[in-house]
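new request in #modeling-help
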Amino acid sequence: MASVIDAAGEPIPTSSVLMSAAKHIEIKCRPENVEFLKCKKKDPNPEKCLDKGRQATRCALGVLKDLYHRCKDPMEAYVGCMYYHTNEFDLCRKEQKAFEKECPLG
Amino acid sequence: MTESVIRNKPGMASVKDMPVLQDGPPPGGFAPVRYARRIPNKGPSAMAIFLAAFGAFSYGMYQVGQGNKIRRALKEEKFAARRAILPVLQAEEDERFVKEWKKYLEYEAEVMKDVPGWKVGENVYNSGKWMPPATGELRPEVW
């Protein structure tokens, strides 16, 4: 289960993949995420925030795909380490450094 | 009889004159034995001991504080990552919920179609806010 993309080339948003890319998603998708949270705060009805949710998902999946195309091997190593250690950042520092050297934040 | 053979003194008149065979001190007596207290009064003073203990304690508490800072930073990193991916996960769940809710509304309309005066669908609370459905169901295939 520690693979970033499936057979069709689409990124799989599992927990280890999302947590590995979380720092990148936080920076690149900040406007979409903030809009979605504001919409939710205004009205928790799921039907009202579907479009903003789709924007946020599209942005996050785009970030995952972009990261995968730019630095495939460090990302796969990092995702594998996170999957093994159940998303503990502190146990994957080596892979995290290699990943962020290849694909720097921001 | 044996005593008189052992303790014989030549020229003794009777048993009463036998020399006494006793275990006694050596000639000149034993060496003197010290029995007086001699507890030395050197070593660290009370103030020195107190300051050393207080120093060790404060160093330990300082290290505790540093460790707490490090742990808080680690926790902040984990929570920031969770905050970043929260919208993706919530949006996913919203899509699934909307699909299931539509199915449920159709089912409710079909079940209650012969009941007069039943407004199908939104029959929840009167406050105007949206509340999640409180059916009390456990659906393990979803969870």
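bot summary: Residues 46-111 of chain B form the longest helix (66 residues).
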